[in-house]
């Protein structure tokens, strides 16, 4: 375990140091692209974090390959590096993805070029043997080598794009990566100690997961809201590539019959857990593809209707939206892992309770918004104008003009209700020429006198 932690620590330190360097260079030389319509940030921000993450991962893997045997005197990862082709294919595929991502972040490539690069990177992995050979469902084996290659390429490209699609909020992908891969690392570590010779203690899936966690931990401080550095397409696609690679490695290498479990569900964990840790990215990806195809657009065309955009539009703050994604990811992935430790009925109870809590928190702004709207709608229109809260009534003309304004938050609800309560007595009938700024007195503006009103 300590050598996994050491590899993760090296990746984190290198990733953090180079993230700081990338932020400073990007700011100095203005390497931040222009803000797009779908972006939620307001200041141009460099997107070179993926390069720093890639460097941290490469250095950590090379340290495990060449330095760790000198430190310990024992080559613990000898089976991982016994086939150098696998490691070189992973590094080569990662390099291709990072180059494509950086070019896209700086000059905005078309979707066909990016997809072609992703297929080449995934094909390199499958060609060098990092591919699905069997499915962990009753020992089903993929009979055709061509079918194995096609399924591997499809799975890797799918996961890369799914992760890239949710990269729209500060700290979102990095945090989800830490949570999901933390659970996956525990899972692969448990299997390594229970599957005997079929899954050695030091394995490729666990090592990739450890260095990816380290890279995300090192990058997150500069990506936390408000972010000073983005991972960009380079970092998001790299994260998806390595998550898919570790899942393919562990899924294809394990025979569920060797895990010696007495229940049925643990046998399906090798295929359930990779899906569980990617539940949020895959859901967002599926909805985006359906939405765009039904509208006659390319499934890779950009829009502002991703799940994180919808959470913001519902009224969640940036920070709350990110935490909601963390919560959904943690509940589903931890729930699947608990099948290893608890009876199924208790795991089901945990999953139901966790999903109910997450759903309640996710939908909370809708009830808050409804309370604000009802309070304003039930008040006389002149009273709402005098209180300055008429923009929260979606049924009148003022509300329709303000439909593009931010959705009401908890503070807005308190202000609106308090303002309505403070307005006592019949509201004055305002002339048509009096603007709203004149109708709502402020500290710097006194009410109109009778002489001024007549004039």
Automatic annotation (TrEMBL):
Biological classification of the source: Bacteria, Bacillati, Actinomycetota, Actinomycetes, Micrococcales
Disordered as annotated region, ranges: 423-455
Positions of transmembrane segments: 6-27, 48-67, 87-107, 119-140, 146-165, 172-190, 202-222, 234-255, 267-290, 319-340, 346-366
Keyword Signal listed: no
Organism the protein comes from: Frondihabitans sucicola
Predominant localisation class: membrane
Designated name of the protein: Undecaprenyl-phosphate alpha-N-acetylglucosaminyl 1-phosphate transferase
Membrane topology: Multi-pass membrane protein
Keyword Transmembrane set for record: yes
Compartments where located: Cell membrane
């Amino acid at each position: 375990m300590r050598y996994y932690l050491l590899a993760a620590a090296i990746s984190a330190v290198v990733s953090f140091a180079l993230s700081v360097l990338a932020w400073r260079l990007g700011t100095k030389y203005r390497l931040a692209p222009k803000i797009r319509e779908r972006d939620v940030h307001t200041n141009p921000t460099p997107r070179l974090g993926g390069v720093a993450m890639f460097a941290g991962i490469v250095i950590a893997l090379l340290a495990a390959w060449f330095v760790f045997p000198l430190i310990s005197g024992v080559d613990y990862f000898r089976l991982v590096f016994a086939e150098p082709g696998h490691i070189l294919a992973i590094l080569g595929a990662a390099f291709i993805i990072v180059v494509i991502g950086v070019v896209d972040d700086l000059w905005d490539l078309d979707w066909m070029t990016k997809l072609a690069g992703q297929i080449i990177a995934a094909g390199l992995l499958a060609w060098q043997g990092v591919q699905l050979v069997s499915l962990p469902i009753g020992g089903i084996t993929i009979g055709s080598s061509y079918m194995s290659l096609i399924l591997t390429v499809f799975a890797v490209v799918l996961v890369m794009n799914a992760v890239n699609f949710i990269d729209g909020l500060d700290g979102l992908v990095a945090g989800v990566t830490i949570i999901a891969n933390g659970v996956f690392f525990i899972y692969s570590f448990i299997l390594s100690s229970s599957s005997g010779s079929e899954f050695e203690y030091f394995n490729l899936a666990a090592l990739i997961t450890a260095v990816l966690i380290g890279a995300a931990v090192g990058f997150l401080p500069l990506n936390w809201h408000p972010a000073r550095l983005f991972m960009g397409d380079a970092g998001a696609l790299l994260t998806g590539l390595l998550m898919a690679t570790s899942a393919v490695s562990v899924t294809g290498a394990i025979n569920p019959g060797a895990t010696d479990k007495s229940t049925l569900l643990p046998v399906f964990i090798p295929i359930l857990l990779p899906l569980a840790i990617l539940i949020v990215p895959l859901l967002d990806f599926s909805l985006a593809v359906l939405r765009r195809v039904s509208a006659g657009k390319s499934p890779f065309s950009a829009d502002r209707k991703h799940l994180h955009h919808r959470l913001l539009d519902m009224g969640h703050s940036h920070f709350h939206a990110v935490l909601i994604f963390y919560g959904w990811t943690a509940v589903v992935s931890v729930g699947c892992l608990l099948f290893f430790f608890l009876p199924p009925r208790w795991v089901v109870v945990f999953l139901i309770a966790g999903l109910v809590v997450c759903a309640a928190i996710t939908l909370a702004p809708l009830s808050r918004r409804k309370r604000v709207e009802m309070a304003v709608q039930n008040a006389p229109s002149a009273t709402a104008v005098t209180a300055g809260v008429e923009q929260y009534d979606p049924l009148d003309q003022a509300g329709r003009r303000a439909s593009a304004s931010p959705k009401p938050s908890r503070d807005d609800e308190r202000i609106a209700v308090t303002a309505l309560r403070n307005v006592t007595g019949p509201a004055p009938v305002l002339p048509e020429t009096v603007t709203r700024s004149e109708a709502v007195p402020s500290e710097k503006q006194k009410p109109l006198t009778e002489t001024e009103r007549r004039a």
